[in-house]
Amino acid sequence: MKETDDILAVPLWINGHAFLTMAPAFFDVRDPRSGLIRRRTPLCGAGQAATAVDAAAAALPAWRSLTVAERAQLLATLADALAGYGSHFAGLIAEESGQPDAAAAAEVETALCLLRRAADEATVASDGGVVAIVCDDRTPLAGLLQHAVPTLLAGSTVVAKPSPKAPSVAVALAELMAQGGFLAGAFNVLHGDLEAIEGLCAAPALGRLLFSGDAALRRRVAEIAGRHGRQLVD
User: Which residues are in the Aldehyde dehydrogenase domain (predicted)?
Assistant: First the structure.
């Protein structure tokens, strides 16, 4: 028996629910502090990327039809839910990114601030249609929400592509969104590495590609985006 045989795979989140897929390969998510494998990330490709983007595109008209105030209220509800599960999210961040417990808890607080000031940012947000957000593993929650909050508030829908090293926070966040009344397809989670990013860039319905992470990864993502005639935005 392999070490990973009893380790569960992290699901995608597409169209309002957990989405299991037969990926061609998986990435072992290790706790950097202990070296133990905690879960496995499916390394998705073009097919799964297209499914996620199509779900976001299908949800776009209904999500756009909400007022800014209604979308801001959903984000405020998400903030309240996240506050209630703050220790759980901090635990996931620490376990997958290797952050000290205090730093992980501080990241949750940063995420709460981003959500709670959403209404104040409504006047500067701009709609980009379906938006993909690629993140690294350094700040898997705050880095994602830094882009996702103004994007969702503006009326765009999102496909998040977290690092395969730290995939769980994005899925847990999507679950809280579903419980809080977000429209199915407004926020989706695609797992994978560079092939998943290729798939996102190739999807005709994708509007914008945003990035949160370190410079080395940004260069690789920008190269992929450039091959598809897309501009990467920080």
Answer: 27-230
